[in-house]
Amino acid sequence: MRDLGRYTNNVCHSERSGESLRHRILRSFHSLRMTVAQVIPVANRSPFFIWSCKGIRVRPILLLLCVSMIVVFSGTGAGAQYQEQEFMDVVTPEDMSIGSELQESEFQQSQPEEPEQQQQKFADLVLPRGLKAFDIPDDSGGSIGVSWNVSPSDAPDVEYIVYISRSEDGPWEKAAGFVSTTGYASDAPHIFGFRKKYRNIHFVEIEPRKVFPDANNEENNGATYYFKLVMARGSDIAELDKVVSVRGKGNWFNISKINNLVIMLAFSALVLFYISHARRHPGMFLRKISGLDAVDEALGRATEMGRPVLFVHGLTPIGSISTLAAINILGRIATRVAEYDTVLKVVNNDPIVLTVSQEVVKESYLEAGRPDAYNEDNVVMVASEQFPYVVAVSGIMTREKTAANFFIGFFYAESLLLAETGASTGAIQIAATDSYTQLPFFITTCDYTLMGEELYAASAYLSREPMLMGSLRAQDIGKAVIIAALFFGTVLSSVGINFVTHLFTGF
């Protein structure tokens, strides 16, 4: 044991004397070998030791204990602390294979961190790291983005303030400010995407022209702007030493809207394909709409009974989409009426709609080969106000005993009054409107009702023109894709997978 104590003293002495690492290791193992060689035989001859360690390999255990003592004494003996300069002076090229890794680690620990990497503390505020400024992509060059990592000091009572300047030395103007628990990069998916890691980064978008009114002048295009960050809690203010700069530039394309472009191109290709398909196959199948299948039935019934057909426009002017759709349907009905040699009466409340309706009906009779059957007095404007219009149309239905009534267009409160009057005369009634507030009344009082977009699809069903049929078929497939996306998007979002949702997100 005296040799073991002498060994430890040698280790401590070598540490204090600045002996090289290689020499210390060699001296340590040499002393260890001598100590083990002297201690092991003595231990093996001791009856007590043999009894207490029966069945145990003694030499490996003693070796392990001695190595543990070497580690303890070499790390803490005599309170030795190695300095960088001592270590570098005594290391030779021969020692590099042994001590290079220790040298590098100790050298790195002794070096101070750069100011940007330090968490500087001022007024109990921990300043954030990673301050960056960058040009906002996919814009005209008028916006700058500033981002930085979240700070441990972020709290509802802590505010971030971003200052902007045209010079690194100032003067500085306040560009933006917000509470430190808001303003994250994840709130701007059109710039950063939808990755969760951006929840730990603050971001603010700054438009220099709002701070400097002349920022959009030609001489200031492409100017460089400087930014600095300040953290404040009440009267306590901490300023980040780093100043960042950036120059904005415009972009030709907005990449964030690429999904809109892809969807538009895909749908356009689908429309063109089905238009071509409809031209090659005129009898292409379209989903059935019972209200349109009943048009021929209603016109045939009016022909058999010898009674007129009444077409009622809505109250909207010619600029309304529903009115344009109604005029298109009127042309198809007028053609069938001319073929059946039945009287068609058309009523409306707008002079421009009146003129267009007269021309459409006239052209339809001409197309059917019956221009002589056209009577201009059957297409009339009965009133320009809502309820006078209702009274006039109701009088026509009661006096003429119309056999088929068509209510096509956008209606208001007059819908129920007109439909009830027509139902009391026993006429077949077909309504089509995109006014969702009036749909319940038409459904209740009419035999068939076209709802919403079926109003716009009616002309394709009645005319069977390839262009209209192809467009309608493509729209049906597009709606099926959207319905499937809604279903699968909902299911996947329920388990945390938002890919489908992001695919249809518009920016």
Structural features:
disordered N terminus, alpha/beta, 5-stranded antiparallel β-sheet, 6-stranded parallel β-sheet, 507 residues, Immunoglobulin-like, 4 domains
What can you see in these coordinates?
By secondary structure, this protein is an alpha/beta fold. The chain has four domains: 79 residues, no CATH class; 132 residues, Immunoglobulins (Immunoglobulin-like); 60 residues, no CATH class; 174 residues, Rossmann fold (3-Layer(aba) Sandwich), CATH 3.40.50. The chain contains 19 helices and 16 strands. The strands form four sheets. It has a six-stranded parallel beta sheet with strand order 13-12-11-14-15-16, with helices on both faces. Strands 5, 6, 8, 9 and 10 form a five-stranded antiparallel beta sheet that branches. The chain has a three-stranded antiparallel beta sheet with strand order 3-4-7, with no helix packed on it. Helix 13 links the parallel strand 12 and strand 13. The protein is elongated and about 95 Å long. The N terminus is likely disordered.
Secondary structure topology:
Blueprint: H1 2-16, H2 21-45, H3 47-52, H4 58-76, H5 84-90, H6 96-110, E1 121-122, E2 125-126, E3 132-135, E4 144-149, E5 159-165, E6 173-179, H7 189-192, E7 201-206, H8 208-211, E8 224-233, E9 236-239, E10 244-247, H9 258-280, H10 290-293, H11 295-305, E11 309-313, H12 321-340, E12 344-348, H13 351-367, E13 379-381, H14 386-400, E14 404-408, H15 414-424, E15 428-433, H16 439-445, E16 448-451, H17 454-463, H18 466-494, H19 499-503
Helix pairs in contact: 1-2, 1-4, 2-4, 9-18, 11-12, 12-13, 12-17, 14-15, 17-18
